[in-house]
Amino acid sequence: MSVVREVFEELWSMFVGDRRLTLLLLAVIGLAAVVAIVIGQKVLADGIILAGAVAVLADSVLAAARKSR
Amino acid sequence: MLSLATAAPAVGAAFVASTVEVVEAFTIVLAVSTLRGVRPALAGTAAALVVLGLIVAVLAPVLSLVPLAALQLPIGVLLLLFGLGWLRKAVLRASGLMALHDEDKIFAREQAELRAETAKAGRGADWLAGMTAFQAVLLEGLEVVFIVIAVGAGRGLVAWAAIGALGACAAVLGAGALIHKPLSRVPENTLKFAVGVMLSAFGVFWTAEGLGAAWPGGDLTLFALVGVFLVAALVMVALLRPRAVEAAS
Predict the structure, then answer these.
(1) Are A3 and B134 an interchain contact pair (Cβ–Cβ within 8 Å)?
(2) Which one of B18, B87, B187, B247 has the lowest number of neighbouring Cβ atoms within 10 Å?
(3) What is the ipTM of this complex?
(4) Rounded to two decimals, what is the model's pTM?
(5) How far apart are the first and last CA of chain B?
């Protein structure tokens, strides 16, 4: 059973290793979905996903850097 | 006809990402092999490959039933989560805020742990060693399966991505068989940096396409997205390096 548990833990950590990064990224994608589907601004949605992903990465890296002090 | 601009990023990303995963699995299998012999190491590896084969055999037909457009959004989001996670660690390692991944150290640690556990296990020592190899190959293999599906499924390139992954397996196992030591000279941290950049770029690309957006420039946009993530990550490393030096002093 420990192998099965480890597999699920590994899968979980693959995508939710950093909870803050996951939640912020899902929020960015939710915003982009509203802009693309509800407002119909698809190029703007492209920009939101790209800029949002870079911003989420920067936030996560800075948070880890602050912790490592 | 399949263009190079479409297939090359998928094959390249699958090859580089799989190289990293196979090197990690190889280190543990080698630790098992040097401590308990080749038999449990090969048995555990073979069993894990059978399980991975079954997973692929079940997943492939299911995925082929789902329209590509429906796959792009979930795959894009998962790729972004996975890719940004790798890139985050790679930036922290490159800037000196996180210890570098060291296959020699991991090999020594795995051997020490396995030695202690097998000493306690008595007659079940080979079984325990086999299970260690099984678990390592299964866990790293699952990541390879995910990467192949994720970078290939959005454009129907799973077979091409699988060729990239198999090429990585052949290259790593070939090198491993020749030198019979942990592949610590593989620039794993640099490869992880590159993989994080590529997977994040794929993730942005598929997520936007999954939401119905079209990229100006089509598939060539992937190269521009790779450039954006690469520059952003390098800037983060440059900004964080003084902080790491300050923390170390």
Answers:
(1) yes
(2) B187
(3) 0.90
(4) 0.83
(5) 57
